[in-house]
Amino acid sequence: MTLNTAQRRYLEAMGIDVFIARYGESRVLAVKPENPVPVVITYPPAVDPAEWETLRGEVAACKRCALHKGRTQTVFGVGDTAAKWLIIGEAPGAEEDRQGEPFVGRAGRLLNSMLQAIGLRRDEVYIANILKCRPPDNRDPRPEEVACCEPYLRRQIRMINPKIILALGRVAAQNLLKIDTPIGKMRGRRYEYPDPRVPVIVTYHPAYLLRSPKEKRKSWQDLQFALRVYRESE
Ligand code: URA
Q1: Ligand 1 site: residues with CB under 6 angstroms?
Q2: Which residues of 12-22 are buried (b: 16+ CB within 10 A; e: fewer)?
Q3: Mapping DSSP to helix (H, G, I), strand (E, B) and coil, where does residue 87 land?
Q4: What is the pTM of this model?
Q5: Which of 95, 110, 143, 170 could form a disulfide with 183 if both were Cys (CB 3.0 to 4.6 A apart)?
Q6: What is the pLDDT along the chain (234 residues), one digit of tens a residue?
Q7: How far is the CA of 186 from the centre of ligand 1 (A)?
Q8: Pairwise CA distance, residues 213 & 205, whole Å
Q9: CA of 103 to the centre of ligand 1 (A)
Q10: Residue 52 in contact with residue 155, Cβ under 8 Å?
Q11: How far apart are CA 22 and CA 48, in angstroms?
């Protein structure tokens, strides 16, 4: 049995001690005090919380590029650090900059529905962006900004070690994969992130789908394709 964050909280609320294995180990013992037989639960290899928080602190203090001057705060990412699905968008918008969380505006609500359509809750995936700071007027990220921010995302990917990455939109996909293929040609293909080696599937950005609702059907096909690739990797 694997545990997600919500299940772990539930066990803890029931008074069950949950011993979380250190980073790299894969077992948790949940022992109910009145029950002499320990319940042994396998747990996905967990992110080292200290390492994760160090990275979060570095990002919060980052001044590597000029975007730090205009931000309200950095947008590190949100979700389960033991997630099997990593969702990567472009950059925070106005609402994300205000709240410090990715995909909280209209596009975020559509993203939640897209995830729900393939049986995933927002809190059981991890959501991050190519950039941690909002570009002014929501312009596209510049290559030097992407280069400054990339090591942070790379470290997040290494620590989470997801089973699949879903790249949302052209900017996310091209920067993640370092290619300039048009998004229409990237859809329906299985790419690979190199380190760790993780399949990457590309679909349209939810903000684009809000502007072009007719494309939702294609995005549904992409999600089903992603689900197939994920299942093959299990
Ligand atoms: N669009 C993105 O690409 N990322 C966000 O966090 C919000 C909107």
Answers
A1: 89-93, 96, 102-103, 107, 129, 207
A2: eeeeeebebee
A3: strand
A4: 0.83
A5: 170
A6: 455 666 666 666 766 666 655 444 444 455 556 665 655 555 555 899 999 999 999 999 999 999 999 999 999 999 999 999 999 999 999 999 999 999 999 999 999 999 999 999 999 999 999 999 999 998 999 999 999 999 999 999 999 999 999 999 999 999 999 999 999 999 999 999 999 999 999 999 999 999 999 999 999 999 999 999 999 987
A7: 20
A8: 11
A9: 5
A10: no
A11: 7
Q: Map residue 191 onto helix, strand or coil.
A: strand
The preferred substitution site among 88, 111, 127, 129 for testing ligand 1, maximizing ligand atoms within 8 Å of CB, is 129
Shortest-distance atom of ligand 1 to CA 206: 1
Q: How far is the CA of 18 from the centre of ligand 1 (A)?
A: 34
Give the C-alpha separation, 130 to 143, whole Å. Answer: 11
Amino acid letter, 191: Y
